[in-house]
Each structure stands twice: as C-alpha cells, then as structure tokens.
Amino acid sequence: MGPLWALRVAGALSVAGVLAGHDGSQRAGQPAALDAGTRGDGVGHDRGVDCREVRKRNSSERCRFVRGTPDCRLDGGFLDYLGGAFCTFPSSLLPLSVSLYALWLLYLFVILGVTAEKFFCPNLSAISTNLKLSHNVAGVTFLAFGNGAPDIFSAVVAFSDPRTAGLAVGAIFGAGIFVTTVVAGGIALVKPFAAASRPFLRDVIFYMVAVFLTFLVLYFGYITLGEALGYLGLYVFYVFTVVLCTWIHRWQRGDGPPPPGPWEPAIPTDAEEQESSGTNCGDYGEEYRPLLPYHETSLHILSTALSPLDKHKWRRKPWYWRLFKVLKVPVELVLLLTVPVVDPDKDDLNWKRPLNCLHIVTGPLLCIFTLKSGAYGLYQIQGVFPVWALVALAGSVLAIIVFVTTHNEEPPKYHCVFAFLGFLSSAMWINAAATELVNILRTLGIIFELSNTVLGLTLLAWGNSIGDTFSDLTMARQGYPRMAFSACFGGIIFNILVGVGLGCLLQMTNSQMVVKLEPDSLLVWILAGALGLSLVFSFVAVPAQCFQLGKAYGTCLILYYLVFLCVALLTEFRVIHLAAT
Asked: Taking the C-alpha atoms of 179, 185, 188 and 193 in order, what is their torsion angle to the nearest 10 degrees?
C-alpha cells in the first residue's frame, strides 16, 4: 500500500501543479502555438495560407503555390517531398510519387528499427554496465529509452513544428491504445497466463495519471515550463517506485536477488542466436576454428567487421529472411561505418581496432552533417575553412594516435568512451530518420487531405509499434507472457511522459516559456478518451479475473481497438461530427 499511497499523493500534487500552472501561465510570455488539431493546421495562427489548399488549385498552379507558400516549407530534413510531388513529377504521375513515398516511408521504419536494435540499445546497455546500474534501474531508464527511441525522437521532431504537433499527439496516444489493446490482447490469446499483480497495478496507475495530465493540458490548451518538467519528474518518480518495489520484494524474500520476473526480466536476446549462428563457431564445432593460433591483420579485421552478412546463418535461413536481410544490408553497412558498438557480453567487448579508429573520424562527421540538415557542417570559419574539414582533421589525428597506441587483440582501458560515441552517433541517425518520417507523413497528409492526428494514430503509431508487437508476441510464445505483458505498459509510460515533457520543453525559449497545444478537432478528444477508457477497463477487468488473463480478455481488447479505429476514421471523414451551434 505504501507505493500506491505515495502515487496517489504524487498524482494529486501533479494535478494541482497543472491547475496552478494554468492559473499563472499568461505571465510567462506569449505562448508558442502547437496546433494539435486537424484541418485547421496553419489557419488563424498568422501562418498565412494553409498548404492543404494546394489540392484545390489547378494542376499548372500547384508547383508555384508550393514554392511560394511559407506553410508548405518543410523545416529540417534533406528532401523536399512536397516539391517532388508537385514540381518534379507531372500531375498525371502523382500516384507514382505517392507510391515511391510510401515505399520510402516503409524503409524509414526499417532504418529506425535497425538503428535502435543493433546500435542504439547495445551501446545503452554498455553505458549502463559501465555505470554499474542495477537491472531494474537500467530497465526503466536506458532500456526504456532504447526501446522507445523511435517514438521519442518522432515526438520531439513533430513537436518542433506547430504544423506537425498533431502527429506527436496522435502517435503517442495511438501507440498507447495499440500496445495496451492489440499487443496485450494478442499476448493473452497466444498464451493465457497469470499477470503479476503489483507491477501491473503500479504501471497502469502511473499510465492513467500520465494520460489524465495530458488530457488536462489539452483541455487548457497549453503547457507551461513547470508542467513540462513535471512530466519528466513524474517519470523519475516512476523509476524510484520501481526500484523501491523491487527492494521491498527482495527484503521480504530475504534471500538476495529474486529469480527473473516481470520486475527484473532476463530476456533472451539476439546475442544468443548470434552466438549459435556460426559467427562464434557455435553450431559448427571446430570446423571453422583455425588449427593453430594466429593474429589477424588489421585489414582482415576491418573487412570482417564491415560485413553485415553471416554466410553460415545465410545458408540456414528461409527465403523471406534473406529478402529482408538484403533490404537491410545497405543500412547496416552505413551504420557499421559510422557507429561504434561496445558489447559487454563479448570477451573483447567488440573491440575492432581499425574500424573503431575509423569511427573516430566518421562519427563526429555524421553528427555535424545531420544537425540542421548539414548547415553546421557546411559553415565556414572566417569564410575560409569549413567546419567539416576541421572536424575531419581533428578526428584523423586522434584516430592515428589511438591506432598507434593500441593493439588488435586487447581493447584499451578507455574503450567505454566508444559506447558514448556510438550512443550519440546512433541517436543522430534516429533523429535524421525521424525528421524524414515526420516530413513525409505531413506530405502524405497534404496530398490526401488527412489530418496530422489521424496519420499519427495510424501510420506513425503502427510503424513505431511494430517492433514491440513482434518482440512481445514472440516472447509470449517462448513462455514469457508475464514479461511481455509487463513490457506493454512499462514502455509506453516512458513514451508519453518523456515524449510530451521533453518534446515541449525543447520548444521553450527565454521569451516563450509556454507551449500552446490546440486540439481543434473532435478526433483528439476521442483519442484521449479511448485511451483512458481502455486503461480503466484493464484496471477493473484484470483484478476482477484474479489476474488470470485468457482468450476472453484478449478478444475484448482487440475488438475494442477495432471499434475505436472505426470511430476515429468516421470522425476524420466527418461522418461523426459535433452538431453545429
């Protein structure tokens, strides 16, 4: 009862903070408007003509309209999608451009997934190991950040532009509904199980508090600095509660660390599969192991480390795995060239001396070329020397020093620094992919005259949640349904608290300490209400079944999501609307 009582007090204080913040928010300066509505994006906020008007123009005028309308300019990103759709392609080939954009959208999700899974998360794990964090703290901080990186970066990028704020609101709420209904229901259908009572109640209560705070922010129409910090503070309190509950559980048991459970999972990872895939001679015994010890040359280490294909695994995998691998190879090759990975589970910590020295040059270059679409990298010092050349020169000198003072066989003592470089480099890749993702979704919204909110709750939410769906369902099939079910609620708490809190906090300046959120459409309220109702249903239904979850519970959740999706689409196409007053 102690943690639940403390949570109720924290929830009351947070609500009081929201109300107090809105009482004096007007003194904090002029709010920075972020439109979370639908078709009203850009109208009535001093942004001139709405870019969605392009569909009402003649085919010959659309290119000039896109080029001359400020609302049609996509902030950030490397590609001009609107210009490509209405200027590069003739109007008769608009379906072709849309098809290409759809394929590129799917590939962006592949880039996000590969970067987060194979580069971002391993480096976060290495950092947490070097910081000597417990499994619980690492699980609700670094692991949650790694799993939610695509969602967080997409939300931050979407909040950075008033015209795409609806994408962030729709994606955060839409992913919440999808994970807590479809994924959680699918786990119950695949493997009926008994849920862990205390972790479930803790996570659901925290998530309901977060949704209620977001509902209040949308109701009042803006979020203050104190409230944005309150979101992050609530997540810190959630981490503290998880650690406290685990400590109390261990103290009650009196026999040291508990066995793996929902509060301290021991999840089988891809590293186990890789260990038996042939890379480490797992399935092949001594066949691929040299008879005599030898020292690999630097050139051989570099060529092996840059190969994203494992020929032994390739022979054993089915054709669809090979096809998907071929699609991922270009992404993995570029990432291998620019992002170092430190693996604490390997004896050599994944130390690849020639490749890691190359990372000292390519990593910083990647960072400056992805910031502001390369504007910082192309800036010239005193109008003569470009910044990218200075970074390349400094990196090359440092790489030569590291190469001369280290050996291929043994990682240096400062090898953990490469984990931080890999974390930063992979974060920049995810941010760049998220920026392109948000821009292409906004372009599709303009072409099809769809709101940002419905795009966020469908395409963006589905794309960012597809990895969690497969991993959780696979975990359930392997006999870990309680762990998968706990992951459904634990991960999305991080997404909503850090996504909204950090996304709005980064938009505040000294002159604008208030970010305005304007839910001008009925769809936003349906989205928030549906998420809250689904959480209340689980909060009541799960204890009512004595935490025994089966096919009936899973079927109800999936049917609930289908009904919600129908209502949302009918609202988007104005079949369901408010009566005119």
From this structure: 60
